[in-house]
């Protein structure tokens, strides 16, 4: 619905409403600080606690860089009248404002895609045993890429010539800007919902207490929190589609886009940061043993006689829970819980509803021979 302020000039002496503009400055500052802080902690954790920088970290760095640039452009947009009523924006700011709108429209797709790509990449590693789910994730990545590449090309060539986008006095033609923004919003809502819901059936199928399942779902599905921003963004686009008060309407829509991207970037850092929290926890816990349980149990077994070893079923099980192993996988340090049985007893591998090998792997060995060689 068109804003009344867009049709009637501001009355003489009336104060200019800068509340949305101020909210934009606060929102973008918070987004930049939060993204940089979480990404910095991720880099520290990967370099000094985990196994160093990997390919996934470079993708996350690209998402962080684009997210920060996206917020900086929003600050520039506010400087040129974004967040003000159109009637309150000086005429000399119209073209610079439209240029910032053009840049944000082109940047939104690649920024959103790379952020979601990083989140989905984490899921492919965490749920690697669930083959069908992993295949679905890769197909979904491909579908999104097949949309965003032509979408970016269309946005770049939205007007012919391009300069007509910010200067309508130039002769030429332009496509429907609102329809393109609407399409982006629908794709964002759909993809955010998938990122939010995908870990649910996979995690619920695991054999672990419900409390731990909720923790895993919280870590892996945190990126789906951006769905709230994307839904509200879509609603605002629909409501303000015909508004002439573009400087105010677009800034509101853009702030929600910034929030969506920032939440996504932060959530890509959460799995790695869990390692930092675990390190801090163990350093302040005086009751934790310094010897790894698996090593301790193997040492105890080696001290037994060969006859006792051959008659007994021995189970060497890492003390990590399914939750811990999922977190390790998300951090980029895959852990597989392994059970070792003697010659006399065997156990089948637990399967998963997605046709994978499951989270637990069973290995049958000749105990006496293995330990004798050791």
TrEMBL record:
It is a multi-pass membrane protein. Residues 41-278 form the Rhodopsin domain. This is Rhodopsin domain-containing protein. The keyword Kinase does not apply. GO terms for cellular component: membrane. PANTHER family: MEMBRANE PROTEIN, PUTATIVE (AFU_ORTHOLOGUE AFUA_5G02860)-RELATED (PTHR33048:SF159), PTH11-LIKE INTEGRAL MEMBRANE PROTEIN (AFU_ORTHOLOGUE AFUA_5G11245) (PTHR33048). It holds the Pfam family Fung_rhodopsin. The chain crosses the membrane at residues 23-45, 57-80, 100-123, 135-158, 178-204, 216-241, 261-278. It comes from Penicillium argentinense. It is found in: Membrane. Keywords: Membrane, Transmembrane, Transmembrane helix. Belongs to the SAT4 family.
